[in-house]
Design brief:
Elements (H helix, E strand, L loop, with lengths): L1 H15 L6 E5 L2 E5 L7 E5 L4 H10 L3 H8 L5 H10 L3 H8 L5 H10 L3 H13 E5 L3 H6 L7 E10 L2 E15 L2 E8 L8 H9 L6 E11 L2 E14 L2 E9 L7 E10 L5 E11 L1
Antiparallel strand pairs: 1-2, 2-3, 4-7, 5-6, 5-12, 6-7, 8-9, 9-10, 10-11, 11-12
């Protein structure tokens, strides 16, 4: 009797082992299997991480579930833009918009998308995203960092007699060979920055003009950071701009401080100082 019970216990794990999924159909990089969820007769799965195969599924697969799943894995900006603007299924377009980092593409979708919710999402993301091209010096400070890495700044904007102070956070979404995709949010509201601060920070993404380099040391969180400094002096339209940036390789993205001075024709001087408060994780 004891021997019989022992054999029964030995056989129990094998009997309870999960059966392999029943494949309904499959193709290059994907399969559809019988689902165990009530009301969902089948589930779809990706079986590849090949970028070209994923792009093909995202662009042309007849099953919207697989197109949406592939969109979540695709990093090619051209593919994401194509799907975000052209997929027949609104849920797939919405998934693609959530991964687009090109402000021009997002602005186009915000103007022309027929679905009101997707238009609103694209408009919000247009103001959230920062795309750091691989040719930018800042790209090297993000390359090799993990998604979710963040930096927090305190910004003070002075315009005439008005002074406004805001803290904002830049968070790394992903890095590709083409560039780094970040999101920039107001630290309090978690929404996209707006107004003068957003406009002045945007100038720092594409600095131009006469360039002067130097060295400096700044204190951040009790640490002395040796920084390279670059001063740009130039003119954007009718506005004379001086932009100075402090950078250190110890910081994600490199940026430690940003000073911007704008002298617009016929308007009061404007100043921005954004100072690093911390970073993580």
């Amino acid at each position: 009797m004891a021997r019989s019970l022992a054999i029964s216990f030995l056989l129990l794990p094998a009997a309870c082992a999960a059966a392999p999924p029943q494949i309904v159909r499959e193709g290059p990089g994907w399969r559809e299997v019988q689902s165990s969820s009530a009301g969902q007769p089948t589930a779809v799965e990706l079986t590849t991480d090949d970028p070209q195969a994923l792009a093909a599924i995202a662009r042309t697969h007849p099953d919207a579930r697989l197109r949406a799943a592939a969109v979540d894995e695709v990093n090619d900006p051209a593919v994401l833009a194509e799907v975000a603007k052209g997929d027949a299924d609104a849920s797939v377009r919405s998934r693609a918009v959530a991964r687009v980092a090109d402000k021009d593409v997002l602005a186009d979708i915000a103007r022309n998308e027929k679905d009101e919710a997707i238009r609103a999402s694209a408009a919000e993301r247009r103001d959230l995203v920062r795309w750091i091209a691989a040719r930018s010096a800042e790209y090297g400070g993000w390359n090799g960092r993990a998604p979710g890495t963040w930096v927090r700044f305190k910004a003070e904007v002075k315009e005439g007699t008005r002074v406004a102070s805001t803290e904002f956070i830049r968070t790394l979404v992903r890095v590709t060979p083409e560039g780094a995709h970040l999101e920039q949010r107001d630290a309090a509201s978690r929404r996209a920055l707006q107004g003068r601060l957003n406009d002045m920070l945007a100038r720092t993404d594409t600095p131009a003009g006469r360039r002067q380099e130097d060295q400096d040391t700044l204190d951040v969180r009790g640490r002395r950071l040796k920084c390279a400094t670059v001063l740009y002096s130039g003119q954007w339209g009718g506005t004379i701009v001086r932009l100075k940036q402090w950078s250190s390789p110890e910081v994600p993205g490199g940026v430690v401080r940003i000073d911007v001075e704008e002298s617009p024709e016929g308007e009061p001087l404007r100043y921005l100082r954004a100072t690093l408060l911390g970073w993580g994780p």
